[in-house]
Every structure is written in C-alpha cells, then in structure tokens.
Amino acid sequence: MKRTVIAVALVALVASSIVYAAQQARSKWKRGDGSRPMPRVVTPGKHLGDAPSDAVVLFDGTDMSQWVTDKGEPPRWTVKDGYMQVVPKTGYHRTKRSFGDCQLHVEWSADPTSTKTGQGRSNSGVFLMGIYEMQVLDNYANQNKTYADGMAGGIYKQKPPDVNAARPAGQWQSYDIVFRAPRFSADGKLLSPATITAFVNGVLVHDNFELWGPTTHKAQPPYRKHADKLPLKLQDHGDKVRFRNIWVRELPPRGSDPSDHAE
Q: Which of 92-114 are b and which e, b meaning 16 or more Cβ less than 10 Å from the residue's Cβ?
C-alpha cells in the first residue's frame, strides 16, 4: 500500500511538472522577472457600473448616436431622463461599431405597468454579435411563469441562469457579460464555441457557458462561420423596456499575456 501511495504521488508530481513546463513555455517571462512590463492602467468608473477609462460608451443617456435600426436607418426609440425606451414595432436596434470578444455592461428596467404574462411581460434581449442572446424579461421572484431558459438572465432556449437575481419591474437591473466569440477555421469548421460568463445585479449566473450555436426560437441550428466582429443588438419584442448606461470593453484573446499589451 505504501509503495502504491508513493507511486501515485510521483505520478502526480511528474504531471504537475509537465503542466508547469507547458505554462512556462507559453510565456516569454520568467517568474518574478523584474523587467516584465506592468499591465496598463485602467481607471474604474467613479460609481459602481460606470464605464472605465478604456470602455467604448454606447449609450450615456443623452442620445443614440452610436445606434441605428436593424435596417441601418436612424434610431426610432425614444430618449428621455437618461434612458432609451423601446418603441414597439420599430424593430431591433444595433450598434454602428462591431465587436467580438468583449466585456459588456447593460442596465435595463421592465415596464411596471405591464399586465402581460409569460414571454409577453417586458420581453427584450441583449444580442452579442447580433446572434447570441441573453434574455430580458420581467421575472421577479419567479412570479411571472414561463419556461426556465426563457427567463431574465437566461441564454435564450439554451441555459437558465444559475439563480434568479432579478429585481422588481421599474427598478434598474444590470447585466455584466464577458463574451468570447466562436472561432472558425478557414473552411468554416467550428474550432471553439462562443462562451458567456455573466452577472445579473452582481450575482454570477453563467460561468464560462459554452453556447450551442445561434439563438433561435425553435430548432437549434449549428454554428455557421461569420465575421470576427459584428454589431451588438437590442431587441424590440413589442414591450416598453428601458435601457441605460451601456458600455463595452474589447478584450484581447483568452490566455494572452497582459505584459504583451502593456503601454
């Protein structure tokens, strides 16, 4: 028995050494290297949820100059009191700029006067790359009955949030999303799926979830090769959902060394 324990320990030590050697091989820096550049400085927002210094501000509460309709026309949603509000039947709105890997912050508020139920109760969505949706819905305390993977904070028709951290309609809610775009080979084969890590009102609800493919209402289609960067979209589902304080940070590839991006 003692020899077996020693043998297992030696195997674990060798395996650990191999992993460490592989990690070191991926970096040109030695441990504790005094010449290694420090990460670049990013100044956080003054208040929780405010855009940091390296963010692209997509909506600051004054105008929708960073947005167009899904047809590329001037925005048709209303702007007042620091928020934009969906005007039903005017269609999705998308950003003029395109993004791939990113950190996205969005604040939204459900319509407290709505008498609809299920998927009709303050329905909207945040679409990463215009393709992959994190659902918006009034689901406070599970009082609005619907299917679990269609509730607020869910990856629509793929995964419910780990917990329901929604606030009551009329109160502002926050989504903080770390999105990694899918990777494709030159001939269109999927190399790695899109992933989402997300917080609803500061509570972790998705931890590096691998998306099954594009968001659809019915059958789940496979991935199809698309551009490395595409616009973000907000959904018009016929409900008067409000949005404010929207910003995004473009991210370097996963696992890249911050020292290689230092200024």
A: bbbbeeebbbbbbbbbbbbbeeb
180 in Cβ contact with 197 (< 8 Å): no
| 62 shares a domain with 16 | no
If one counts the domains in the chain, the total is 2
Q: What's the chain's average pLDDT?
A: 90
pTM of the model: 0.87
Q: How confident is the model over 27-74, as pLDDT tens digits?
A: 788 888 888 887 888 788 888 789 999 999 999 999 999 999 999 999
Environment class of 4 (CB within 10 Å of its CB; exposed 0-12, middle 13-18, buried 19+): exposed
Six-digit token string for 210 = 């691998």
114 has a pLDDT exceeding 60: yes
Q: Residue 124 is part of which domain span?
A: 56-252
| Structure-block tokens of residue 236 | 């018009």
228 and 146: one domain? yes
Asked if the structure places residue 47 within a domain, the reply is no
Same domain, 12 and 102: no
Q: Which of 80, 26, 6, 71 is nearest to 255 (CA)?
A: 26
pLDDT at 14 over 50: no
Same domain, 17 and 142: no
Classify 153 in phi/psi space as left (phi over 0), alpha (psi -120 to 50) or beta. Answer: left
Q: Is 8 helix (H, G, I), strand (E, B) or coil?
A: helix
